[in-house]
From TrEMBL:
Protein species of origin: Alsobacter metallidurans
Name of the protein in its database record: Uncharacterized protein
Species lineage: Bacteria, Pseudomonadati, Pseudomonadota, Alphaproteobacteria, Hyphomicrobiales
Domain of life per record: Bacteria
Length: 72
């Protein structure tokens, strides 16, 4: 009987851990969707290069400058 009680206790621990993971997963998803994890980084980079600027830089480094300018 003690063995069964121990197994039920472990099952309860596992269920509690899973509930905690579900809560953590929801909190992490909410933070990611709202941009909270990168908020400080984005504030520090305000007015910096745009996505277009970055794409032009990468294209230039790869030797696609003319093709990028023609399509951009």
């Amino acid at each position: 009987m003690a063995r069964i009680d121990a197994l039920f206790a472990k099952t309860a621990e596992g269920e509690a851990a899973r509930a905690g993971l579900d809560t953590f997963r929801r909190a992490l998803l909410k933070a990611a969707v709202t941009g909270e994890p990168t908020e400080d980084w984005r504030e520090a980079r305000k007015g910096g290069e745009t996505g277009h600027d970055l794409l032009a830089l990468v294209a230039a480094e790869l030797g696609f400058r003319k093709a990028f300018r023609a399509s951009g």
